[in-house]
Specification:
Layout lengths: L1 E11 L4 E11 L5 H12 L18 E4 L2 E4 L5 H4 L6 E4 L6 E3 L2 E2 L2 H9 L19 H4 L3 H4 L6 H4 L2 H5 L6 H11 L6 H11 L13 H5 L6 H14 L6 H16 L4 H9 L4 H5 L2 H7 L16 H12 L1
Helix pairs in contact: 3-8, 8-9, 8-11, 12-13, 12-16
């Protein structure tokens, strides 16, 4: 038996009080965080609120933040988190309000899933028996279908932390599952890509990779978002800031060997959109005295021709 301390973030829905409470317990070496929390609830403090079900990384209901990162409590061994015996901090998921202690309100999470219309749109009479999808066509969707809707990626999404309108990594990964399904009609696929290319969609992801790091099922939501971006551009949905930003970035690196940051903003929002460009002026004025403003004269880097050859080889 080992002595450990779990510092749990408590939330009282009646008083709206938030506080941290420490529990010193004895554990076996194989105990997970969920084992420790259940032990506390059963033998130490019956008022502790914790959500769990299968204890086998299938239901996803025990997702929570452990030492600042979203994890499944049922697969996270305490000694892996705290081999040196430091206090383990356990909190409810981020970007979602708590209901009680470690149980969160996932209403917004499911609302975003519904937003992407998570079902196949065949737009044709059903067959006599079933829709047949070739195995090779579904292989690319296997990882996406492994999602258990635990909300870990949503919890640690930095874009959602500042913009509640962002659809979020879980919903976008789910959207790719239907965009890539061969049974979906081309019209439905294009309509879906058009919607996802708008505000709050695929171009609002900041590439922080947190969703990839915390996903317990290797769904890699960011990679699915990149796949959606590629599909949207191929479908012709390029009149948006995201596509222009992508093209400006690539064009700058290809021709000069590095990024021309001064051109990135106007080329992303559109050179003719004066109002949108002026909106960035206060930011430019704040960074100017700190020496953070990119150089006005953007010079080619030595060896830029090698970078261009990489681009040309890839394009061919």
């Amino acid at each position: 038996m080992r002595n450990v301390t779990l510092k749990v973030r408590r939330f009282n829905p009646e008083s709206q009080e938030t506080r941290y409470q420490e529990y010193a317990i004895q554990i076996e070496d194989h105990w997970t965080v969920l084992d420790g929390l259940i032990h506390i609830r059963e033998y130490v403090d019956e008022t502790l609120g914790v959500r769990c079900s299968c204890r086998s990384a299938i239901c996803g209901s025990c997702a929570m933040r452990v030492d600042g990162r979203a994890r499944l409590a049922c697969t996270t061994r305490i000694l892996e988190i705290s081999p040196d015996g430091h206090t383990v901090i356990v909190e409810s998921l981020g970007n979602m309000p708590p209901i009680k202690d470690l149980a969160t309100d996932m209403t917004k999470f499911w609302a975003k899933i519904k937003q992407i219309e998570p079902y196949i749109k065949a737009h044709q009479p059903p067959p006599e028996r079933e829709y047949i999808a070739p195995s090779e066509a579904m292989e690319d969707l296997t990882a996406t279908m492994n999602c258990i809707m635990c909300g870990a990626c949503v919890s640690d999404c930095t874009s959602l932390a500042v913009d509640d309108n962002f659809i979020g990594p879980a919903a976008l990964a789910k959207a790719y599952r239907f965009v890539g399904d061969p049974r979906e009609t081309e019209v439905a696929r294009d309509d879906r890509l058009k919607m996802l290319s708008g505000a709050g969609g695929i171009w609002d992801c900041t590439h922080c990779y947190e969703c990839v790091q915390v996903c317990p099922k290797d769904v890699a939501p960011l990679e699915r978002i990149v796949d959606l971006r590629r599909a949207a551009m191929q479908a012709g949905y390029t009149d948006n800031n995201g596509t222009r930003h992508n093209n400006s970035f690539a064009r700058s690196v290809k021709h000069t060997g590095w990024l021309d940051e001064l051109r990135l903003v106007p080329e992303s929002v559109g050179l003719t959109d004066i109002q949108a460009n002026l909106a960035f002026l206060p930011t430019a004025l704040r960074v100017l005295p700190k020496g953070k403003l990119p150089p006005i004269l953007h010079q080619k880097r030595p060896g830029h021709e090698h970078v261009r050859r990489i681009f040309e080889a890839f394009e061919k």
